[in-house]
Amino acid sequence: MANAWKRENNKQPKLLSPILLLLSLSLLLLLFIFFFFARSPSNPPNSTLYVSQVYPIPPFNCLKSPQAHPVVANIVENLKYPFLYSLSDFGSLPDKPHKNIVRFLKGKPFRKPDISATIQQLLEGMKRRNGLVVDVGANVGMASFAAAVMGFKVLAFEPVIDNLQRICDGIWFNRVSDLVTVFEAAVSDRIGNITFYKLVGRLDNSAVSATGAKLAFKSNEEIAVQVRTIPLDELIPDSEPVLLLKIDVQGWEYHVLKGAVKLLSRKKDEAPYLIYEEDERLLQASNSSAKEIRDFLHSVGYSHCVQHDTDAHCTKD
């Protein structure tokens, strides 16, 4: 028995055959590739890979911003590409809550904002094109997220910190941090600072003009704050394609447009589709007028404008 044990103990271990070794290595490589790509963030179907852009002003850092609270967020109804957004206006609690809070408590989605539906309808025909969507006066992101969930890259501008916090909520809820870049700034025709007026409880009516801010809500208290201003031409390089420019700034539209003269002067196939609020009362409160804007747009080639309620849609047709 002792000799038998020695004979067994002296046997050399069998080596893996070359074919089996090759198959094992191939399997390990395939597993590595699978897990690498499974962990890598995928791009939405209509998005474009962009090289990291260096801007003249830093984007707003959501990770360093204090978290807004409380948070009331919900999905939007009746959109082909639904998204969530976070309310900044709660109404008068508890007696007269915002209508979307009432819907939320009833288990209903938020009402579809008109601008969200408009943005998605327009971009539906641009899905094969590369370019930015620029949202000036982003509020809580109802236009920005409508575009981002379709896969479009968005630059959003909003000077009110309360609204910026809600945009940050929406960036997280909709998983679009790779698509939406936010700037804490008011867009204008010059670099600097300007006094901005926001209404307590009505952040959707904040404006550069104190008169414009209180035009619809005269009883609300106003707060004056200093905000940074920047022209779009200083931030968007000539080489960057822009598909759509949306402006809703409570009467400051003319100054925004003047600060984007290079962008708007691009040739027909490269000039953005333009949507801006054209409310004569708000424009006059900021010492401009609808005629002044139309004359300016005509000078840079926007010869075709159609009115949709208080919004004007302009192209170089």
Automatic annotation (TrEMBL):
Segments forming domain Methyltransferase FkbM: 135-302
UniProt xrefs under Pfam families: Methyltransf_21
Keyword Transmembrane helix: yes
UniProt cross-references to SUPFAM superfamilies, sorted A to Z: S-adenosyl-L-methionine-dependent methyltransferases
Tagged with keyword Phosphoprotein: no
Keywords: Membrane, Transmembrane, Transmembrane helix
PANTHER family in the record: EXPRESSED PROTEIN, METHYLTRANSFERASE, FKBM FAMILY PROTEIN
Protein name: Methyltransferase FkbM domain-containing protein
Organism: Dovyalis caffra
